[in-house]
Specification:
Strand 8 and strand 9 form a beta hairpin. This protein has 2 domains: 41 residues; 112 residues, Sandwich (Immunoglobulin-like). The longest helix is centred in the first third of the chain and has 39 residues. By secondary structure, it is an alpha+beta fold. The relative contact order is 0.19. The strands form 2 sheets. It has a 5-stranded mixed β-sheet, with no helix packed on it. It starts with 13 loop residues before the first helix and ends with a strand.
């Protein structure tokens, strides 16, 4: 009886080895390219979305952009996106967004005072000819349910009086 050798032979053709090496190189390059694209996107895209999510970008013709109709529940807080475009030749410092002059549609009376809504916003520098996004919080402090006409303003707070740069009227609808 003939004795068989226990040594096995593994034979892979040179062509198969070359194909496997090329596949791993292409896979590695694809992963590096994908990683580079995502790193660049995460650093640059948030700046684009800040202005883009406003819906309407502020321009020289429309320097203050906010939704024209704002619905809010009584004694609630609502997050809003507002855009401001400085049309002056110089930069404005410490610009914030505020709310002024709310009138009741039902009575025509001014609702300033303790129940008047307030806006909380960050102060930012507003370079000239550049759109600036703001994330603001509108706090309703106890108005009666109904509709109000208010002014949203871009302003710098002063010691005695605020300097208002731009204003736009909005409809504020208070629900229960």
């Amino acid at each position: 009886m003939k004795k068989r050798s226990k040594r096995g032979t593994l034979s892979i053709s040179i062509g198969a080895i070359v194909i496997i090496v090329i596949a791993f190189v292409v896979l590695g390059l694809g992963l590096v390219l994908t990683k580079t694209i995502f790193q660049r996107a995460t650093s640059e895209i948030p700046e684009i979305f800040d202005i883009a999510k406003l819906g309407k970008e502020p321009t020289a013709e429309s320097p203050l952009t906010v939704r024209g109709e704002i619905s809010i529940k009584r004694k609630a807080t609502k997050e809003l996106d507002v855009g401001y475009y400085n049309t002056d030749r110089e930069s404005h410092l410490n610009v914030s967004i505020g709310i002024k002059n709310c009138l009741s549609v039902a009575t025509g009376e001014d609702v300033s005072g303790t129940d008047a809504p307030i806006v909380v916003s960050r102060e930012q520098e507003a370079p000239n000819s550049e759109p600036i996004p703001y994330l603001i919080f509108l706090k309703e402090k106890g108005l009666d349910t109904g509709e109000y006409i208010c002014e949203i303003v871009a302003m710098t707070k002063g010691d005695t009086e605020d300097e208002v740069y731009e204003r736009v009227q909005v409809s504020l609808i208070v629900t229960s």
